[in-house]
Structures are given as C-alpha cells and as structure tokens.
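dumping this here so i dont lose it
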C-alpha cells in the first residue's frame, strides 16, 4: 500500500499538468477543470465541459445503470467518462476493500482477457479510497478502466473513470489528481 501511495505522490506532483491550475493539456487539447458538487455532499474537481451522458448512450454503454440515477459525466464524443453510483444502505469502512476485491475477483473470473494493472488503497483529505485498474477489450479499441470506491456518510460510492487504452498514459495521472480532489 505504501508503494502505491508513493507512486500516487510521484505521479500527481507534476506541476505543469495539474488540475489545481484549472486546466490540463492532453493530446494537444486544453481541458478546463473546476470543482463540482455531486449529490449535495461530494466536492470533486472534474472537466468543465463534461456533461451528464444522454440516456440513449447510458443504455448502450452502461446497461446495468440504465434504470439507476448514476451520475455519468462524459466528453462530447462519449469516449472519456466519469461515473458515480451512490449505493443505498450503509457499510462499515472495513468492508470497502472487501467489496473492491470481490468485484475484482469476479471480473477476473468472468473475463480472463481483461488485463489487471494495479490495486491499492489510499487516504487523502480524511477519505479512504480503494481502487483497481484494468484494461478491457472492446469492439474497436481496448478500454482503460479505473474503478474506485469510497464512503459518503457510511454509504458506498462506486466510481469509474474510463477512456481508450491508447489515452491511458495521459489520463492515468489526471484520475489520480481527481481522487486527491475528493472532499465530503
């Protein structure tokens, strides 16, 4: 865990591409970032122009969330996504890592072609965040997925970031900065 925390610190200390500056440059594009309030309790810094994904795209890309009120923010091409699913019921903080591990084990068992990259738990701003990273095959390109778990008022939030795998190098340090921006 300390090793992953050290990696997180090194990656997020790049001053020239820091969301705290209000923008980052990715692939020749400048992406503006600002703090948002989700569900009246969660402050997080996210891209300004990302908007709630239209229901027709949710149905195709996130069928499990079609009937839920998940927040799925996406770019105009729907190729880069931030998803937040606020679960009902409460859990003990110790259960969060177990849930992450159980979900990861299920994914590995059901989808052996998925490439596992990393798994860790970090603490920042008094918030404990458990995460894992995987690359999943799709029809045209592989998808980089960063799935993370944290608690808001003892309720589990399952959050996901994804983009095409060939953009992972640009977005991987940015999603870590987004996690460090979380405040309840």
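and the seq i came up w/
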């Amino acid at each position: 865990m300390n090793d992953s925390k050290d990696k997180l610190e090194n990656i997020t200390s790049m001053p020239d591409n820091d969301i705290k500056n209000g923008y980052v440059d990715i692939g020749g594009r400048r992406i503006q970032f600002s703090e948002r309030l989700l569900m009246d309790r969660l402050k997080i810094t996210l891209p300004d122009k990302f908007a709630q994904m239209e229901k027709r795209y949710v149905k195709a890309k996130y069928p499990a969330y079609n009937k839920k009120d998940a927040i799925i923010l996406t770019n105009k091409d729907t190729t880069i996504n931030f998803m937040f699913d606020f679960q009902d019921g409460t859990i003990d903080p110790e259960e969060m890592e177990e849930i992450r591990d159980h979900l990861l084990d299920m994914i590995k068992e059901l989808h052996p072609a998925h490439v596992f990259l990393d798994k860790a738990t970090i603490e920042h701003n008094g918030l404990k965040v458990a995460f894992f990273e995987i690359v999943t095959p799709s029809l045209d390109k592989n998808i980089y997925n960063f799935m993370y778990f944290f608690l808001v008022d003892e309720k589990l939030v399952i959050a996901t970031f994804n983009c095409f795998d060939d953009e992972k190098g640009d977005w991987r340090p940015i999603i870590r900065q987004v996690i460090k921006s979380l405040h309840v």
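Residues 1-14 have pLDDT under 50 and may be disordered.
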